[in-house]
Write a structure and sequence with these properties.
With 285 residues, the protein is α+β, with helices and mostly antiparallel strands. It has a single domain, classed as Lipoprotein localisation LolA/LolB/LppX (outer membrane lipoprotein receptor (LolB), chain A, Clam), CATH 2.50.20.10. 21% of the residues lie in helices and 39% in strands. It contains four helices and 14 strands. The protein has a 14-stranded mixed beta sheet with strand order 7-8-9-10-11-12-13-1-2-3-4-5-6-14. Strand 4 and strand 5 form a beta hairpin. The radius of gyration is 34 Å and the shape is globular. It starts with 10 loop residues before the first helix and ends with a strand.
């Protein structure tokens, strides 16, 4: 039996038609692919270089107000009831404080009976401590480590006087204030030193005062939180109550001011404790 193969005369024509359709599909896909790539590149560029938002006039005024430090008195004197909670133990003490921005302070104990048994002065260059009962006098650098020698906890000595008045420490030239967010009347502001976040503060824009400051370490872990309340009727930006939380030590200090005075005429020598006659100083560093 002889079998004859039959081939359709339209086969070659059909093959050409199919190839033409595939080429048309590829031609359509190429511009679509280019469009997707261009959109992706545009999106990445927009993400990497966001356009700066225009700063609100009110926020700009607040930042200028904080930088000028005009909200706070330069000097303050008060008595203070201090409660410390640390390592499962509690301490209570009463002190007399004289504060001068940015970093000068004097502390004297107020005992229930008798004369003061603790004196401390601190400025930008040195710290001095006198313990009359022991007859000892100490001189050292104004560092948190030296401060902790005489106080239950390590505190941020730099700018401490300002922090105890409800103000931020003096801003260095390279430091900048950047608004983070605003909820109601409270404006959250970051203090940056280059790319590093030094601290964050919460500012009550209605009453023009700082209500909280958080200070960070080099890795932006919280070190200290200062919360302020019960503000003075004379100087509305100055708190009469301060809660200090030491995040890494799980400890806290509560300070309640009484007898606050702002108009004080005193010589700055009050921040440089004199060595009593017959006492030999011990150097801490």
């Amino acid at each position: 039996m002889q079998v004859t193969a039959c081939v359709s005369p339209d086969k070659n024509k059909m093959t050409l038609t199919m190839n033409h359709i595939h080429e048309q599909d590829r031609a359509k896909k190429i511009p679509l692919l280019l469009l997707i790539i261009s959109l992706f590149i545009s999106a990445c560029a927009a993400y990497q270089k966001p356009l700066p938002k225009p700063m609100d006039a009110e926020i700009k005024f607040i930042l200028d107000e904080i930088r000028s430090e005009s909200l706070y008195p330069n000097r303050m004197q008060a008595s203070a009831n201090v409660n410390v909670s640390a390592s499962g133990r509690r301490y209570t003490m009463r002190m007399a404080l004289v504060l001068k921005k940015p970093q000068s302070l004097r502390i004297e104990s107020i005992p229930f009976i008798g004369t003061p048994d603790f004196f401390l002065t601190l400025d930008e260059n040195k710290m001095k401590v006198f313990l009359p009962k022991e007859g000892t006098f100490y001189i050292g650098k104004p560092s948190p480590e030296n401060f902790k020698t005489f106080f239950p906890l390590k505190l941020p000595v730099k700018g401490l006087a300002a922090l105890l008045m409800g103000a931020i420490p003096a801003l260095e030239k390279e430091m900048q204030l950047y608004p983070e967010s605003k909820v109601g009347d409270i404006l959250q502001i970051n203090v940056l030193d280059g790319k590093n976040k030094m601290s964050t503060l919460w500012f009550d824009s209605l009453n023009h005062r700082i209500v909280k400051i958080v200070q960070f370490d080099a890795y932006e872990n919280p070190l200290y939180t200062f919360s302020y309340g019960n503000f003075s009727e004379v100087e509305t930006a100055v708190p009469q109550t301060i809660l200090i939380v030491l995040e890494q030590h799980q400890a806290q200090i509560t300070i309640r001011y009484t007898d606050i005075q702002f108009s004080i005429e005193q010589d700055d020598k009050i921040f440089d404790l004199a060595i009593p006659p017959g006492v030999w100083p011990t150097y801490l560093d």
